[in-house]
Amino acid sequence: MDKLNNMRVFCRIVELGTFAAVAREMNLSAMMISKYVAQLEQSLGVVLLNRTTRSLNLTEAGEAYYTRSKQLLEDLAELDEATAQLGGSVKGVMKISAPIDFGGIYMVPAIEAYQKEYPDVKILMSLDNKYQNLRDGLFDMVIVVTDCLDQGVVARKITSTELGTYASPEYIARHGAPETLADLSAHRCLHYVNTPHGDYWVFNNNGKTEKIKIDWYFATNNGRALSQAATMGMGIMRAPKLSVHDYLQQGRLVEVLHDYRIPSLSVYATYLQRRFYPAKLSSFVDFLIKYFARQY
To answer: Which CATH number fits domain 161-265: 3.40.190.290, 3.20.20.140, 3.40.120.10, 3.40.50.720?
Structure first.
């Protein structure tokens, strides 16, 4: 029995919540995952998980074993990283998550530039607009564009942008441009869903934050689709300036409600606080800060 492997499997079950999810992640059968847990419980002489067809819960012994096992596995990973760095090279696999639009538009060129300097680092990037909990252990780093930071994580600002309101010249020619926040009620609003603010748009009104609940006409969780809708004249959108930079340069979108823009919306690289930071992580974050300072 490989106890270390079984320990890893057990920890991932706790973090992902199901045997099936761990089986998919490890490219194994659910039966094999169950076998590993059974071997671990047999060797310890205790039940770690209470499992039924519908639920999976830690026993008291399971909670204690998970806490210590997680720390042990992290210590072993840190030991491997520290020892590898004695060789003088930066290498390994970096798993990162980024918002769909920011990741697709801006992170790929940044990663390409980084890997020219650090060719032994492989980067696996997942693009998702959903909240990612670093404590789940799926990612080494999560990129967030936000004004609401998660507590208890390290957050380093890699760049910033403005949060503005935009429409196409064609839309403005047909419907006019809003001049005050109250005017938005007479316009078709294009809404980006899955933000911390729900159905509200947030503005800077004379130095104070003001939230307006909008009656959206079209909504999506994809910034490119939202920008496309705006350029087609479907309505007015609210977005970080970085997301619509090219459309503004091309004249396909123009800013409205300029006086109500939020001047500084930060983009952060976030990661868990730990005693030792792998060179692949620290070098990548440092590189991103310098890269975006040069580019934007």
So the answer is: 3.40.190.290
